[in-house]
Fold:
Amino acid sequence: MLRLFVYGTLKRGFWNHDRFCRGVLAVEDALVCGRLFETSSGIPVLQVPEEDILAVGTTNPLADVATQAHITARMSDPEPIPDRLPKKGTGAPWGDVYGELLTFDDPEIRLPAIDRLEGFHPGGPCLYRRVLTSTQAHGSVLSAWLYVADTTGHRGFKPLPSGNWRS
Structure:
């Protein structure tokens, strides 16, 4: 199963949800640790602490889902493994970013389509990077893929301290 944390136009009620998320198996309210911004064109962008990134997306959707399953299994292992717990980033203030956790059963179709939408091209210039990080939903911590942008040097990005884009 593919889990994807969305915080912008892929959420229910926004223009890309019906186009790219039709056939979703489950939608749950969720949150991640990060910072949310809005571009001058009104599109949200997210930063997460680098130390919270568990993996970086590739061009192989099935390998990425296998990585997600492996990391989620390690996170739920009752034995104390130091790297299985979500961390809070250091440095500038990080907070809760609210979105939705989407679950799909068709990653080989779904991920390439959403990667194209988000401008994610591993090995090439990217608008966003797809990364795996800890996500909280209904009291559980799971790993989920999400798209993050490099916001350094972008003065036109407006911080959204509420952690919620167009709630």
